[in-house]
Amino acid sequence: MTDNSDLAALIRAIPDYPKPGIIFRDVSTLLLDGPGFRATIDRMAAMVPADTSLIAGIEARGFIVAAGLSYALGLGKLMLRKPGKLPGEKIGTDYELEYGTDRIEMHLGQVQPGQKILLVDDLIATGGTAMAGIDLIRRGGGVVDTALFIVDLPDLGGAVKLRSAGVESRSLIAFGGE
């Protein structure tokens, strides 16, 4: 077992982005490191519940994590997209970020009733994006009881918000004091 400090060291901190007072945890520096990214996916794959049947990734960095996990585990990947990206019938939800608002959408019919889906993203902060993803999947008929992230910013309360919605939040790394 590792404390993942090797991976934490690969994540760059950018102060005052996207606005003053916010420390942006940039996982792009981790993604640039081939062995680091491989270790990230391997360690996250070991945290995925055995009964998971589909990996849902949130656009954009969540797609990278979801694709790696889907490949490693041989599972399909559900894309939760930003507006205007999906043709055909879809559902969407608006949500708040710590620095604004956004929206994600999902195609109808890609989730089977009762299907066990793991939600993944690069980072959980306030939990707004993850809660929107959970809402979409549940409205589509899926079951979400676990969400997985590379980074948790626990001081912003997102993991607590997920737990209050019946979803276990797991992450490799936590940066406190954010």
Automatic annotation (TrEMBL):
EC number: 2.4.2.7
Annotated ranges, domain Phosphoribosyltransferase: 32-149
Superkingdom: Bacteria
Entry-linked CDD domains: PRTases_typeI
Species annotation: Sphingorhabdus arenilitoris
GO molecular function: adenine phosphoribosyltransferase activity
Pathway(s) of this molecule: Purine metabolism; AMP biosynthesis via salvage pathway; AMP from adenine: step 1/1
Cited Gene3D superfamilies: 3.40.50.2020
Protein name from the UniProt record: Adenine phosphoribosyltransferase
HAMAP family recorded: Aden_phosphoribosyltr
Quaternary structure (record): Homodimer.
Catalysed reactions listed for this entry: AMP + diphosphate = 5-phospho-alpha-D-ribose 1-diphosphate + adenine
Function (record text): Catalyzes a salvage reaction resulting in the formation of AMP, that is energically less costly than de novo synthesis.
Localization: Cytoplasm
One Pfam family it belongs to: Pribosyltran
Keywords linked to the UniProt accession: Cytoplasm, Glycosyltransferase, Purine salvage, Transferase
Family membership noted in the UniProt record: Belongs to the purine/pyrimidine phosphoribosyltransferase family.
